[in-house]
Amino acid sequence: MRNLKFLMQIFLFFASFFFAELGHAAQLDMPYRYCETTVSNPSVCDVSLDSPIWKDAYSLMKPPEFNEESDYVWYAVPLDGSKNIDNNSVLFSTMGEAVEVFFDGAPVYAYGEKEDILGNNGSKWHIITLPKIQDGKHWLMMKFYSPVHSQLGKLNYFYLDNEIDNGQRIFLFDALNVATLSVALGMLVIMHLFMKEEHVSRKLYVACVSLLTVFIAWTLSVLNMKYLFLRNATPWWLLFMVTTYILPATANSIVFTILHGRGKRFVGYFALVFLAITVAVMAGELAGFHTMLRALPLFYILLLVCDIPLLCFECYEAYKGNIYAKGAILSTIAFPLGACIDGVSAFTSISWRVLWMPIGIFGFIFFVIFILKAQVAREKEIQLQSENLKKEIDESIRKATTDRLTGCLNRTSFHQLLGGACNDAVNKQLPLSIIMLDIDHFKRFNDTYGHEVGDSVLRNFSACIREKLSPAQPLVRWGGEEFVVICPNLDLRQAMKLAESIRLHVSESKLHEELVTSSVGVATWHGKKDTPQDLFRRMDEALYFAKEHGRNRVFTEEILG
To answer: Domain 174-381 has what CATH class?
Structure first.
């Protein structure tokens, strides 16, 4: 709801621009005179305005019906010098027409020629500076030609004002277009930064970028301010027509990627139909039939008709839980509806101050928001899966390297730990010692009390040892009742002191109702000339010596000579 309220505020902000200048005093919509001529008699500048060939009309915005045989249409607009002395700038808009303007019979402006069919194309703003208007009555005469008869003599706007205000008026007309262009460019950046990921549908990403790219090109083609600097409207007209026809196909490519089943098939057929229409229209235009403009009314009607079942499919899939379909509903309504309103304005006497189709981009924001929401949810899911997988891996490693009975490291991890400790001792020139402890007469516990008691003794024994060790001194169960302690940074004397401390602690602790003692062997690292295998062998032999000489005592490798 917050997003909807925000978009409504944007809409109302731009709507205020639209209504601000309706009925502006500078816009002329007044009685005038007109006449129709043919190629054989193209000029009427010298014909008196009282001649019968001139007829009365009452609204520049609502021209009368012209004869099909007419090649040209002339308008004669009266100007009162006493009222318009400071207004010497004329601003009006045409579509696909060649224009000549005369002031009191003298030519002051020309755009396009009858022979230049393509050169007359396009929606074109004409801003003309007139000679200084003196007191008295003057006539502004305009001559129009269009290869499409329905566009002949049609004016979308007509303003008589000063040059500054007319220039500002063009920029004001573009306020909505500039806003939607900025939004589209921003969303294109968002698509590039946040959607081009492996877990985002590649087809959806390409479809969204394609739509935004075509929409940006379309918006550039309808910007009015460019005509303050560029005279030729034809390239922009061609860009406008091409992007108008391919916009539905690019929009439907998005819907095609998010729908399923019959809805997906319908959208596919829908897109193919519009592509076929686009190809046919382009071919007709190249053949000189002006089909791009002539086919637009049918195109708008077909767009609106096909949009209804498309919207139904989206609503159905949104009801079924398709988050993308839910996000696309608003733009599916806004884009075609805005295009049809613009079509009504282009082919009837109803004239709007802005183009409505670009407003659909604000509906597309909803779709992008839903995409980003789905992406965030997907990323959280992937992160959760990754964390769970890491926990499973860690647990598997722990199980593979840990003795289940005592919780000590097992023999599998011992070789890696000892190898790493030996490398550190060599590289850092630090002392290293290892200690092996063996429970004395352990077999008697199993034979007398059973294996459960024996297991309990092993657990208690390992726990007792750990009480004397630091975190940097790993305890490994070598096998049976034998345990090994790796002692980084301890030389032989320090390691022997630690071993004796452990032996005493074990014998003084009540690990079982019978006294539990241990025999201990200690060896130390001799530098680069030594090997982990030799180090272990010396420790094992020291332990064996302790067991052979009375048990419950500590011997180091020095006893071996």
So the answer is: mainly alpha
